[in-house]
């Protein structure tokens, strides 16, 4: 009866979330305690529930969460399909949520219910979406990584983060075979094959393969510096606090070298494999980073980056960025021995040789 009347008499003492059954609280509280009693016999990874373990174990077996095989090839498909936009889902309730959120105007019987946030004017399409959103106000991070002490507000963010530790890369490029930990990185990578650049700057004629690249580029026009450093009080267009803390949480599994950002580690790993997936369409030269390919292509097109403060021009955006610090006085690279700041990372490395006794 509780299922039908939606009575939820049992509440979690840690976060207040309510449940219809006391046993559900015991499972839910593992999110707060970090307990993961269900261990994978193949890789040792732990899970809060037996069902989560069962889904994970499909990655190690021939079984897949796409139970319908094509009669002509080896591809398998999800069982639940949206008849309006043809999107597919692995669970029925995922399809139901999709229909309510995206097609309520055209699906008979659906009236999209809104779940308003009590702290701001945002409305969500489901109670679960509202709970996730409210964590932006409360700062709650109930999902802890089983490999390190990082915590996350969303379970999906935790899953993507843990792939940094496990090395699981489930998304495959059909053109070159390269694998990725996240769907969006595969989508962005595919544009290196198609040449698609869907994100265009409204200030100039440049286009980009990813929205983050467009946002960073736009700051050249606006002068926006949204990141304030808590240590030195300066404002930056990119986060630089790891310069002060020296934090480098991402280690290369091949040589042990540490990096402040996961992207830098992934780029570094290409030096071990020798892979150069980014090829110039004009001269056939290849590169291990998309940014280096873009800078190289400017040699063919003659593109210049103009300094807004003086009449200097540069063939590379990175050269303009380094030059512009002469005008702003920004010195983001600090020596952890004497505190002296430098505008370029190369200058800091040369300076550190004085402390190491390696000055030439």
UniProtKB/TrEMBL annotation:
GO terms for biological process: regulation of cytokine production; regulation of immune system process. It is found in: Nucleus. It comes from the Eukaryota. GO terms for molecular function: DNA-binding transcription repressor activity, RNA polymerase II-specific; RNA polymerase II cis-regulatory region sequence-specific DNA binding; zinc ion binding. One of its GO terms (cellular component) is nucleoplasm. Its main location: nucleus. This is C2H2-type domain-containing protein. Coiled coil: none annotated. It comes from Scophthalmus maximus (Turbot). PROSITE patterns: ZINC_FINGER_C2H2_1, ZINC_FINGER_C2H2_2. It holds the Pfam family zf-C2H2. Residues 10-37, 38-65, 80-104, 115-142, 143-170, 171-198, 199-226, 227-249, 250-277, 278-305, 305-332, 333-360 form the C2H2-type domain. Gene3D superfamilies: Classic Zinc Finger. Belongs to the krueppel C2H2-type zinc-finger protein family. Keywords: DNA-binding, Metal-binding, Nucleus, Repeat, Transcription, Transcription regulation, Zinc, Zinc-finger.
